[in-house]
Amino acid sequence: MTRSKLKTILLAISISLVAFGLIFFPKESLEASKRGLQMWWEVVFPSLLPFFIVSELLIGYGVVKFIGFLLEPFMRPLFKVPGIGGVVWAMGMASGFPAGAKLTTRLRQEKLLTRIEAERLVSFTNSSNPLFIFGAVSVGFFNNANIGILLAISHYLGNFCVGLMMRFYGRNEKEEDVSITKKTYSLKEAFKILHETRMKNQKPIGKMLGDAVTSSIQTLLLIGGFIILFSVFNRLLYIVNITELAAHFLGFVLAIFHFSTELALPLFSGMFEITLGSQLTSQVEDVDLYYKVVITSFILAFSGFSVQAQVASILAQTDIRFQPFFLARVMHGFFSAFFAYLLWKPLYVDMYVFGNDNAVPAAGGMGLSIVYSYWDFILQYGALVTIFSLIICILISIKTDRQTKDKIIKG
């Protein structure tokens, strides 16, 4: 039997089993679907939408090229990607999954990256955002704001190491030349590139903004579908005891590293969906906080099959391959867990346990308070932001359809 036929059979069986699960467990499936919808509705949509819209405008008006030109001497030697990768990296960290994939795809569509450069870039520009790490995980799940610093530093250090490792990826493959090549990286040259890009873009600001809103909401609707799907899928696996069987196997692996086997079930759940995995890890009793933080760090970095499926669907719009991204997520998981293990004493024990448990480092106090305030805002008004944004998208679509029909009639 050929590999292609085997793949067809496996896919058909998998989809059929999920369909049977939905039929035999309708109540549980509905509850899981509602949980995924609530998370998307109240948190994911309102937190990602502003970043998606702004990133579309930054690309359209040449700001990405402007900043990228100035960052070229930094990004090229370190990660073997163009300077525009620095913008994607920053936006990916600020807004979280899967913003890095979205931006990388757009840059590839604009022919500002080669395929190999795009595959390197997407591997280390997708990460959890500070809002999720400090707000949802540290405060919401663990009820311990102090572990936020440790989780965040471990997470982003792991991503940095992935970027350094992936610079060696594809070095033997021939690439097309799409990068900006200038010998002198001056502010004057950067502004010239900015102006040339803006002049090439003939769209008025209203049209640009409308397209940015529509494109961003379409991507977020896609993300919402994956969140709901994997929420249901994860629940079905638990009902039919597949989760428990896999947890037994993971328990043996954890025992090798002297971790409690009680963490196996949260770890397996986290490999599918990071929110559920992080929450279950925080709820495990009679396990030291140190072990729970290391496992949570791995879960956040691996990002779960749900997020990976979102990224795969976004990358499918171009010729960017998914396999390097998946490999990078595995590396990121181990790097982050290792840094959480290594930095546990200096960033948590020494800083908080022997001092004031409620203390927040002076260097990050104001920044963390802003993050927590923004998280509270999202929890209170996120659903309203989602409704308002969807109404705007519908109105823009109606207006666009009318303009298209008028042009056809006049033509």
TrEMBL record:
Annotated TM spans = 6-26, 47-71, 83-101, 121-141, 147-166, 208-233, 245-268, 289-306, 326-344, 378-398
Which keywords, in A-to-Z order, does the entry hold? Membrane, Transmembrane, Transmembrane helix
Q: Look up keyword Metal-binding and say if it applies.
A: no
Sequence ranges assigned to domain Nucleoside transporter/FeoB GTPase Gate in this UniProt record = 43-140, 221-316
What InterPro entries has UniProt attached to this entry? Gate_dom (IPR011642), Spore_IM_YlbJ (IPR014226)
Q: What is this protein called?
A: Sporulation integral membrane protein YlbJ
| Organism expressing this protein natively | Calidifontibacillus erzurumensis
Instruction: Please state the gene responsible for encoding this protein.
Output: ylbJ
